[in-house]
Write a structure and sequence with these properties.
Blueprint lengths: L1 E5 L2 E6 L7 H4 L3 E6 L8 H11 L3 E3 L4 E7 L6 E3 L4 E3 L5 E12 L5 E14 L4 E7 L4 E8 L4 E8 L7 H11 L7 E6 L2 E2 L3 E2 L8 H17 L11 H14 L4 E2 L5 E5 L2 H10 L3 E4 L4 E6 L2 E12 L2 E9 L2 E8 L6 E4 L6 E3 L1
Antiparallel strand pairs: 1-2, 3-5, 4-7, 5-6, 8-9, 8-13, 9-10, 10-11, 11-12, 13-14, 13-15, 16-23, 17-22, 18-20, 18-24, 19-20, 20-23, 21-22
Helix pairs in contact: 3-4, 4-5
């Protein structure tokens, strides 16, 4: 018997079996009435899970009344109410590898993810095993009734800590297929469950996976690391693809309808357009920066490209002539990453 004493009074008493199976020779029973209120309408369901499967539940004095304890002499009695904590008598730690698997109706596997089983508890009805993927994002619960060879499988996602895009990609690729008609099964050592329907609220869209793919490549190429954002916009998704295109040497559309040029020698620019009409490619040596999901990224020096450029001459002030270069009808101004610092005309 263990005691907890506070202010000279015994506040907690813990009984331990005196010998093996002592609880069978002198059983301790507990009877009580549960008050179901509007704040916790599922309290009876949770109480049943605690008793049958070894889950945990805590009942406050306002939720419990008519408590009757039958126990060896000196430990039983009738209580008006009580603060009850019900959980597994012994939670066993395990270390067993497994795998989550998704397959289509024909039985072809479409995705899988390694997991680790961590704990095992027993209730009056069956055994509950709990585990998670290697990052702790997907939590797995397997309830087994050995005598009936039946099981129930549940899977939830909890993004509780920051993770790099490359780390979360395997999980997101798995979740991409977590919707009907695909089926879910799980392995425990050499044992594998039968496929069952996928639990709700696990699926992620293709653009979420592609966003993580883009961020992973951007961070690898630029040497800039930051966690997968919790929130982002479609603008972030589009900008990530735009950056990937730039890093791959492609030209991308720019905002704006023209670019401005100034020169103290306007004849040079007029002559260039007169002799070599075509597309304009220009750079002033500035660095291109962008912002994705709250993170500023420096991409490097860039050039502006104007397809089939047309020259519009403006005013001259203090010996400097202003020009506008506009793309011809049906085209737009583009940019690409490079280190070119001069103006050239492409025929």
């Amino acid at each position: 018997m263990d005691f907890s004493v506070k202010d000279g009074r015994i506040v907690d008493t813990i009984l331990r079996p005196k010998y093996r199976d002592a609880e069978k020779d002198s059983p301790i029973t507990l009877q009580f009435t549960v008050v179901v209120g509007d704040e916790q309408p599922d309290i009876l369901e949770r109480l049943g899970a605690a008793l049958e499967w070894g889950d945990e539940i805590e009942l406050l004095p306002s939720q419990v009344r008519d408590v009757v304890i039958s126990a060896p002499h000196g430990f039983g009695g009738n209580l008006g109410s009580g603060h009850l904590k019900i959980g597994p008598a012994n939670e066993e730690e395990v270390d067993i590898g497994g795998r989550l698997m998704l397959e289509d109706p024909s039985g072809r596997r479409v995705a899988s993810l390694p997991i680790q089983w961590l704990t095992r508890v027993a209730g009056t009805k069956g055994v509950t095993l709990r585990g998670n993927d290697l990052l702790g994002v997907l939590e797995v619960q397997l309830k087994v009734i050995p005598a009936e060879r039946r099981f129930a499988l549940n899977l939830t996602a909890t993004w509780s800590r920051p993770l790099l895009p490359g780390a979360v990609l395997p999980i997101l690729r798995f979740q991409r297929f977590a919707l009907p008609p695909y089926l879910l099964s799980v392995s425990l050592g050499d044992l594998t469950t039968k496929p069952v329907p996928v639990p709700d609220r696990l699926w992620v869209a293709d653009d979420v996976v592609q966003f993580a793919v883009n961020l992973n490549e951007i961070q690898s190429r630029l040497g800039e690391s930051f966690p997968m954002p919790r929130r982002w916009t479609q603008r972030d998704v589009k900008e990530s693809q735009r950056v990937i295109d730039l890093l791959n040497g492609k030209r991308v559309a720019m905002e704006g309808s023209h670019i401005n040029l100034e020169s103290p020698n306007p004849d040079v620019i007029r002559e260039a357009f007169r002799e070599s009409p075509g597309s304009l490619r220009a750079s002033n040596g500035d660095l291109l920066t962008t912002r994705i999901a709250g993170h500023d990224l420096e991409l490097g020096r860039y050039s502006v490209y104007v397809p089939r450029a047309e020259l519009v001459e403006g005013d001259t002030e203090d010996g400097v002539t202003k020009f506008k270069v506009v793309p011809s009808s049906g085209t737009s101004i583009e940019m690409e990453l490079d280190s070119i610092h001069e103006i050239s005309i492409e025929s």
